[in-house]
Design goal:
An 8-stranded parallel barrel has the order 1-2-3-4-5-6-7-8, surrounded by 6 helices. The chain starts with 12 loop residues before the first strand and ends with a helix. With 275 residues, the protein is of the alpha/beta class. Helices cover 40% and strands 13% of the residues.
Length: 275
């Protein structure tokens, strides 16, 4: 199990993405089958993922909410299957729904990953606080349906910082200790290309929140905006470049689709730093 908070000088932690959805932007439908999702998650664990992020609702730009029944029918059997298979990686449930959080916790989930920072469902903060679960708080301007319509900021880094600080304080007041809080600035969630690049250049600023920092830039569309005609499955190089930029700034957790390749890139980068 992972001990939080994670020191900036600790080895980076890789969180492998397991989308159990028909419509996620990168691999929607590939792992909708429970057995395939479990096999993929276990492969990511073998490749070096210390966390497996299981999600059953697409939050790509323009995505419509899934029903609770649909979401739970997708993710809960995967979590159960991973536990039965003896999975040692921490299991993160990627959801904004309190009922799904609670059911996932009941069968062994270790981390809550909520793109709404526990604001979408009025009961989610209470669920997390009562369970004393590590939680990932992400910044998003708007909702998945509308977030890319016309995102606007006066100072994107400061506004994200202030938003996350407010959400951290909510968690602290509810009784969740700071060491269990992880902050994600939300690359691609209600941001322009320029916003995303500014965030990547300033990831170190988020350490001042005194929480573990997570970067999720893997296969995001900003890469195609910089390098046209690169669909999600062809964005490995850009994803690694963004991850390395975060690594240089002390980011502790990286949410990635390509665990093996990212791990290799990190090991080479770190080896050159120690010479």
């Amino acid at each position: 199990m992972i001990d939080f908070p994670i020191d900036e000088n600790s080895p980076p932690i890789l969180m492998g993405v397991v989308n159990v959805t028909p419509d996620s932007f990168s691999d929607g439908g590939h792992f909708l089958d429970t057995d395939r999702a479990i096999a993929h998650a276990l492969q990511l664990e073998r490749e070096g993922a210390a966390i497996l992020d299981i999600g059953g609702e697409s939050t790509r730009p323009g995505a419509k909410p899934s029903s609770l029944e649909e979401e739970q029918n997708r993710v809960l059997p995967v979590i159960e299957g991973l536990k039965k298979a003896g999975c040692k990686a921490a299991i993160s449930i990627d959801t904004r729904n309190a009922e799904t959080m609670q059911k996932a916790i009941n069968i062994g989930a270790d981390i809550i990953n909520d793109i709404s920072s526990l604001t979408y469902d009025s009961e989610s903060l209470d669920v997390v606080a009562k369970a004393q679960m590590p939680v990932i708080l992400m910044h998003m301007q708007g909702s998945p349906e509308t977030m890319q319509d016309n995102p606007l900021y006066d100072d994107v880094v400061q506004e994200i910082f202030d938003y996350l600080n407010v959400q951290i304080e909510r968690c602290l007041r509810a009784g969740l200790p700071r060491e269990k809080i992880i902050c994600d600035p939300g690359i691609g969630f209600g941001k322009t290309l320029e916003d995303n690049l500014t965030i990547l250049k300033n990831m170190d600023k988020f350490h001042h929140l005194d929480c573990t920092v997570l970067l999720g830039a893997s296969r995001k569309s900003f890469i195609e905006k910089l390098c046209p005609d690169t669909p999600p499955t062809e964005r490995l190089a850009g994803s690694i470049a963004a991850a390395i930029r975060g690594l240089e700034q002390g980011v502790q957790i990286f949410r990635v689709h390509d665990v093996k390749q990212t791990r290799q890139a990190f090991e080479v980068w770190q080896s050159t730093r120690s010479i």
